[in-house]
Amino acid sequence: MSTRKYPVNGTGLGLRRALLGPLQALPAGKLEDAVDFMEVAPENWIGVGGRRGKALRSFTERFPFVCHGLSLSLGGPAPLDETLLRKIRTFLDEHDIRCYTEHLSYCSDAGQLYDLMPIPFTAEAVHWVAERIRRTQDILERRIGIENVSYYAAPGAEMSESEFINAVVTEADCDLLLDVNNIYVNAINHGYDAGEFLRSMPGERVVYGHIAGHYEEAEDLRVDTHGAPVIDGVWALLDQAYDTFGVYPTLLERDFNFPETAELLAETGRIRTAQQRAGHEGAAARNRAHG
User: Fold this and answer.
1) In this structure, is residue 169 part of a structural domain?
2) What CATH number is attached to the domain comprising 177?
3) Considering the entire predicted model, what is its pTM?
């Protein structure tokens, strides 16, 4: 197991509103046996009261939570939404959120674009995004993590995706949310080696990870949907990630087409099994090295 201190530990599950009822209906202790931490998008919960607000509170009092933002638009041309950031800071404090992350992308200009758009891989964009991340960290009064995103075009690229991500996290001095499904999808769509890309990531900055399902549009085109089971190739890439960086907290994302709760928790169970296997193998390797 990695000896690095993470904001959360173990296996996580993204909490979506559609999952509130099914998860609340589980027998006492069943969810705790399957999940160590949970994640929400703060934009979906800020200002929510009543029955749903109480339901969220019931989960944040039972589990460590992280937050993954949807609409900050770190790479966007419009001014940073500092009003939203202050609302997010209040939400993080109210629910004792362990970590906040956002997408390395943009989703707004004059208004919301309702999609995650690719930032040009250029030195100018590195400086622009890094400055906005630093400002975000100042307002939130905490470090944030940025997620490597799936993208379908790379307009105006002057460097590789890997070089861009490494440059941004270095200049901004922020952390990384490592999404292995996005690496898998991008590797197919853009014709690069997923394992090589994975090994190029700054593992010392990983705060936790995502794993998810995607849609196979064609042999050479995958769409990141979070609406299907995780495929074997992505599970294998997660194993590679643990072999490369050690075991880190990993969360299952599922946004729609929700299966029965038992099937959903079987996937979180598979994450835990992979973590345990990697931990045992890593310990065995260290014992052999010191034998």
Assistant:
1) yes
2) 3.20.20.150
3) 0.92
What is the Cα–Cα distance from 64 to 59, expressed in whole angstroms? Answer: 9
Q: Is residue 29 part of a domain?
A: yes
In-domain check, residue 3: no
Q: What would the pLDDT profile of 151-197 be if each residue is shown by its tens digit?
A: 877 777 899 999 999 999 999 999 999 999 999 999 999 999 999 99
User: Total domain count for the chain?
Assistant: 1
Predicted pLDDT of residue 1:
44
Task: Give the domain range for residue 209.
Answer: 11-289
Is residue 1 in a domain?
A: no
